[in-house]
């Protein structure tokens, strides 16, 4: 159906030959594929306000729907720790490196829970936000990063619980030797490492679940198993020597151990192992961001 | 290249794959990677190549958009029209970066904001105020900007009293108003609007259009507007592109002509004639002249009948329905002496002449009512009749959906109360 253009039609699309040399005069260029390393991380910075809005939303939405509100963040680890105390210490008689079991398990579960929550929550980024992502553009990475930050609130509460328990035991005269300077200096570093690793693993899974939905079942299950491969409910020192090097391949092992070392004065604080962890974390995060960036471009078409 | 070009689209294409996107089974894909890693053939593609015909395989892919190129200049209000599946939505998705193109490129100058939906990301548990910030941030506003415009947004939404109430307690109308208020205060250099105007009540739609007009007129911003609502396109846009089957058919500043062209193409497809009215009578065609009726002007509707034997007809009426199926008018042939009549064997054209089509611009649907002998037929949706705005009456008219059906001829005058006829009692 060709309609000859009438004389009144002023051509609007006087299409010039494809120009390539003037890219810098444009603010935004949308092309099919970009290089593997064109990550546009500066976009994230521009959307930092959105990041905080998401953090706020996650937090508010989470406690507004419950009766006990933020108390849940306290009750859950308390119950978990009590269960661990009864089963692993009371029944199975696992070593707690001579520490009060309650304190030992709190120091292990607080960081582990943070890591595990980061992974499971970020791993569903694409699936849970499909509708939003289909309607508006913003750097998709904002979403998983906001989850990692809002989960910090949960961690902070558990952390306060740990400190409270620690002080209570100290007041009772238990022979515990926390490194207060170490707590102040190492805490941010250890938290950052867990956050980065959780984010890295989570976004890799989230990118893969857009293709293979069954992976999301694997994550919940896998994270539970991974806890037992990490010295959370037992100290690394109780692991037989020949398995220990395998345990140390787990990047979370040095982190959890370092936690106990600075907070409770037991466990292996090893700069070498921590450096390995940091390297592993960085690599995971980088791979994660790259895969995530590939997927975010066309994800909307596949869901 | 002139620097006032704010969007340049070149050879833009988007390929969609129908059906399953991948094998969906991790094991298959792992096997595939392993084969490729060893430099071997894809085991599943090999299987597929034997089983599938080329034609079948290629039909799994659809070009939603193909080789589309156009420029948009600063201050332009560009309408995108076309039928469903013409590629309008795909174009919007690509422009708004929701998805990536398969080929070609888009270059943009300035900040671009897309409104594919009103209230994207609203969270029911958050208050109105919190949602303003959240939604604004999602749409790309910085926090200081939102703070600066907060009062304006709240005022525009008319939700002052409820701004600290969770939006889950809002009525749907309030919800939409609040959402649009945020969008309306976005202030991007380029605003892309999908058929968001289709939601909400008529008042809200009018407000949206008004606001969009303001945006374009006062600040020289660029608007790209996709809609099926041709009267909105007509009143809002100063240029238009027409899409068809994924390609751009035309781009022009002559919005009126282009819309007419689009309508006449759309109309050609409707109605399948001849239609059997009774054992003896066929309806060969139904014709409206001119193609698009200008409101308040003359129109002729020709009913072309063919009778196999001479038949007596007692009733012959032409019925006019609005787009929603409400009957607007009946042209009763008995009033003009057309019926009752004897329909001779062979072809007969009945012409209904409307001296002044006092109809509000819009799309109407034509029907027929016939009564002959033992049969009477009542046919609806035989054909569409498009009534277009005549030359502007000097003031901006209200949107068509506010104007009812009929245009009455009327005059107004000033009259001082003293001059009015004295009441009888005094």
Task: Please describe what this structure looks like.
The complex is a heterodimer of chains A (303) and B (426). By secondary structure, chain A is mainly alpha-helical. Chain A has helices at residues 41-46, 48-64, 72-91, 101-122, 125-128, 130-133, 142-171, 180-209, 215-228, 241-247, 252-264, 271-302, and one strand spanning 28-30. Chain A has one domain (41-302). Chain A is built from 12 helices and 1 strand. In chain A, helix 3 (72-91) packs across helix 4, helix 4 (101-122) runs antiparallel to helix 9 (215-228) and helix 4 runs antiparallel to helix 11 (252-264). The longest helix of chain A is centred in the C-terminal third of the chain and has 32 residues, at 271-302. With 426 residues, chain B is an alpha/beta fold. Chain B folds into 3 domains: 20-59, no CATH class; 65-266, Rossmann fold (3-Layer(aba) Sandwich), CATH 3.40.50; 270-402, abc- transporter (atp binding component) like domain (Coagulation Factor XIII, Chain A, domain 1), CATH 2.70.50.60. Chain B is 27% helix and 32% strand. Chain B contains 10 helices and 20 strands. Chain B has helices at residues 26-37, 43-51, 54-58, 88-95, 128-138, 143-157, 172-184, 202-219, 230-236, 255-269, and strands spanning 5-17, 61-73, 77-81, 103-108, 112-115, 190-193, 222-226, 239-244, 247-252, 275-276, 281-289, 292-294, 299-307, 311-313, 315-321, 327-332, 341-343, 346-354, 362-372, 375-388. A 6-stranded mixed β-sheet of chain B has the order 5-6-7-3-8-9, with helices on both faces. In chain B, strands 12-20-19-15-16 form a 5-stranded mixed β-sheet. A 4-stranded antiparallel β-sheet of chain B has the order 10-11-13-18, with no helix packed on it. In chain B, strand 10 (275-276) and strand 11 form a beta hairpin. In chain B, helix 5 (128-138) packs across helix 6. The N and C termini of chain B lie far apart (79 Å). Mean pLDDT of chain B is 79; it is low at 45-59. Classes of the chains: A mainly alpha (303), B alpha/beta (426). Chains A and B meet through strand 1, helix 2 and helix 12 of A and strand 1, strand 2, helix 4, strand 4 and helix 5 of B. Strand 1 (28-30) of chain A pairs antiparallel with strand 4 (103-108) of chain B.
């Amino acid at each position: 159906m060709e309609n000859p253009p009438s004389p009144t039609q002023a051509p609007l699309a006087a299409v010039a030959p494809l120009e390539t040399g003037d890219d810098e005069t444009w603010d935004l260029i949308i092309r099919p594929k970009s290089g593997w390393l064109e990550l546009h991380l500066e976009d994230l910075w521009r959307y930092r306000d959105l990041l905080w809005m998401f953090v706020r939303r996650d937090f508010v939405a989470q406690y507004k729907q419950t009766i006990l509100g933020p108390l849940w963040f306290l009750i859950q680890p308390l119950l978990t720790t009590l269960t661990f105390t009864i089963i692993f210490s009371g029944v199975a008689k696992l070593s707690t490196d001579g520490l009060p079991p309650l304190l030992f398990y709190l120091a292990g579960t607080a960081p582990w829970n943070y890591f595990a929550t980061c992974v499971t929550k970020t791993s569903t980024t694409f699936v849970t936000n499909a509708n939003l992502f289909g309607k508006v553009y913003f750097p998709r990475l904002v979403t998983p990063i906001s989850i990692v930050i809002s989960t910090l609130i949960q961690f902070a509460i558990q952390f306060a619980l740990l400190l409270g328990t620690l002080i209570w035991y100290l007041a009772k005269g238990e022979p515990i030797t926390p490194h207060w300077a170490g707590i102040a200096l190492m805490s941010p570093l250890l938290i950052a490492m867990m956050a980065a690793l959780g984010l890295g693993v989570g976004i890799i899974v989230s990118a893969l679940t857009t293709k293979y939905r069954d992976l999301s079942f694997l994550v919940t299950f896998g994270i539970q198993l991974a806890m037992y491969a990490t010295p959370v409910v037992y100290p690394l020192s109780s692991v037989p020597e020949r398995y220990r090097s395998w345990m140390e391949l787990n990047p979370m092992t040095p982190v959890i151990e370092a936690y106990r070392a600075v907070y409770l004065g037991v466990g292996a604080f090893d700069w070498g192992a921590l450096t390995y962890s940091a390297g592993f974390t960085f690599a995971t995060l980088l791979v994660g961001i790259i895969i995530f960036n590939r997927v975010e471009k066309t994800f909307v078409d596949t869901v | 290249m002139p620097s006032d070009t704010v969007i340049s689209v070149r050879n833009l294409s988007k390929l969609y794959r129908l059906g399953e996107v991948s094998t969906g089974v991790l094991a298959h894909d792992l096997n595939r990677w392993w084969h490729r890693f060893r430099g071997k053939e894809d085991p599943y593609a090999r299987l597929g190549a034997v089983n599938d015909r080329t034609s079948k395989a290629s039909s799994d892919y659809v070009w939603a958009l193909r080789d589309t190129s156009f420029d948009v200049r600063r201050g332009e209000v560009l309408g995108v029209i076309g039928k469903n599946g013409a590629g309008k939505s795909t174009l919007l998705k690509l422009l708004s970066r929701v998805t990536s193109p398969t080929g070609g490129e888009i270059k943009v100058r300035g900040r671009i904001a897309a409104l594919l939906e009103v209230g994207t990301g609203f969270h029911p548990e958050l208050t109105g105020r919190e949602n303003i910030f959240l939604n604004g941030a999602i749409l790309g506003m910085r926090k200081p900007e939102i703070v600066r415009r907060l009062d304006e947004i709240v005022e525009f939404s008319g939700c002052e009293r409820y701004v600290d109430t969770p939006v889950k307690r809002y009525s749907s109308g309030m919800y939409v108003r609040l959402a649009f208020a945020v969008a309306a205060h976005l202030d991007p250099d380029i605003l892309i609007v999908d058929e968001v105007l289709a939601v909400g009540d008529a008042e809200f739609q009018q407000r949206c259009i008004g606001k969009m007009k303001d945006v374009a007129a006062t600040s020289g911003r660029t608007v790209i507007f996709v809609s099926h609502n041709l009267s909105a396109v007509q009143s809002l846009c100063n240029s238009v592109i027409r899409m068809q089957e994924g390609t751009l058919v035309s781009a022009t500043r002559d919005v009126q002509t282009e819309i007419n062209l689009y309508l006449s193409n759309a109309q050609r497809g409707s109605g399948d004639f001849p239609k059997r009215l009774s054992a003896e009578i066929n309806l060969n065609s139904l014709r409206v002249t001119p193609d698009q009726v200008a409101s308040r002007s003359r129109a002729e509707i020709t009913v072309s009948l063919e009778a196999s034997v001479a038949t007596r007809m007692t009733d012959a009426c032409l019925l006019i329905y609005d787009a929603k199926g409400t009957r607007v008018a009946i042209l009763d042939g008995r009033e003009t002496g057309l019926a009752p009549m004897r329909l001779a064997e062979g072809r007969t054209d009945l012409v209904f002449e409307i001296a002044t089509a006092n109809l509000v611009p819009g799309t109407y649907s034509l029907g027929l009512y016939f009564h002959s002998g033992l049969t009477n037929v009542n046919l609806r949706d035989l054909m569409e009749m498009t009534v277009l705005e005549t030359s502007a009456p000097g003031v901006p008219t209200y949107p068509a959906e506010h104007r009812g059906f009929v245009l009455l001829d009327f005059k107004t005058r000033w009259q001082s109360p003293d001059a009015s006829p004295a009441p009888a009692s005094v």
